[in-house]
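Q: Second attempt. The first request was missing the SMILES, so the protein and magnesium ion are both included now.
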Amino acid sequence: MQEGENMKRKSRKSIGQKELERIVTEHSNSISLHDKYGNILLNFLGVKVSNLVGLNAKELSNEYDWSPSQKAVQTRSSVTGIVGTKYGRQQIVNATPLMDENGEVSLVIVTALDKELLDRYKEVLNKDKDNSLDESLKVTIDYLSEPNYSNKGIIAESPQMVKVLKTSKTVAKTDSTVMLIGESGTGKEVIARYIHRNSLRAQKPFIPVNCAAIPEELMESEFFGYVKGAFTGANMQGKAGLFEIADQGTLFLDEIAELPLNMQSKLLRVLESGEIKRLGDTKTKKVNVRLIAATNRNLKEMINQKLFRSDLYFRLNVIPITLPSLRSRPDDILPLAYSTLKELNLKYGLNKKFTEQAIEAFFNHSWPGNVRELRNVIERMVVTSEGDDLYLEDSFLEKPQLSGNTSDSKSPKEKTVYRGPLKSVLAQVEEDYIKQILEQCGGKVAEAAKLLGIHRSVLYRKMEKYSL
Ligand SMILES: Nc1ncnc2c1ncn2[C@@H]1O[C@H](COP(=O)(O)OP(=O)(O)O)[C@@H](O)[C@H]1O
Ligand SMILES: [Mg+2]
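A: Got both inputs this time. The predicted holo structure:
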């Protein structure tokens, strides 16, 4: 029995290691660090430092069919996709930009994995189901071989979410424009990526754009690009806009309600003609982009207030999908909570568990920040708890939003007792202060950013982080 167990363990190990060795010796995976100009600062191929250091990503452009690193700089967001090499191999590449305090890209981390080897590795794992490798290794492999998203699957236990997924899968196969409507944190981006992944464009880029985070004066050039010498201060070589970058793929326009009216007209024109014109250019260019838009605002009301163009609304609202709030689908709460906990336990090598108290509290809260808030709360519980038992303290939860003017809510200030590592306390203070300033400005983000002394896009990111 003992022997048998040992044997099993041994053979189990050798499968993983042999395959892993191949991946490494064939130098198929790499990690590198680029600056925002595409200069390669550091590059590991397999286990060796490669000779690419000092080159510029652009110099490699004849080796690869496109550059996720450049796209990550242009879009200021993480880009994942399949890149073909000139030797006919395919790599799954992720480029993640790191931002500085002004919201500018300072560095890009690029990881590349050989797709074929990964697929083969996965096959071995699947064939070997009952004496398979550790769960954690499997999760890692699933993560690495998932081109477009996420170490965590989409959780959909409630009938409402099952229906959302079903509709999404069906419309994915069409090229129709989808409008995702739902409160912040309900999973609009998750669904947008799911639609892309299940579409015929899955192997092409998925480009997420947060309309709220692009400064108004840069919007046109970000969306449509510009040619050499289009305006002073413009990049010498000109620059492709987001529509060109997303060509053949999917463009995800998040927070669409934040587009100023003049951009709404320009967007409408592009959607009607299927053509874009770079700033300063005389020629137009055909682009083939599938559009997914998302909003947490009531666009119909905005139309009545003349803040949103109704013709653009009808163009975008071809297939509306509403993401239900978390409080309206309690069946999803525990599955989401457990999967988040599993992810964190794995990430930090912990073995924490929810107490009865925590579970009951999950159901008593209204989750104004939806799934994002739930994830944040669980992360707070995990990083601040001392033992393995997780309790949910009231101070971790968002107060349900008071509708209308909140200036009368000045309750006597209680002294806050902070607990846990400095980092989480600082985050709590940051969150509280941002909330206070936002309230003071009646929710006007540009004004609040000014008071806080940070860029509007930085504030949006922080608001997203704290589900504000
Ligand atoms: N059904 C789901 N299953 C797993 N994770 C989810 C689900 N919905 C949302 N999340 C997670 O919650 C967070 C917020 O989701 P996101 O798609 O960014 O929301 P939104 O775009 O509506 O604000 C993300 O971390 C996302 O991974
Ligand atoms: Mg979002």
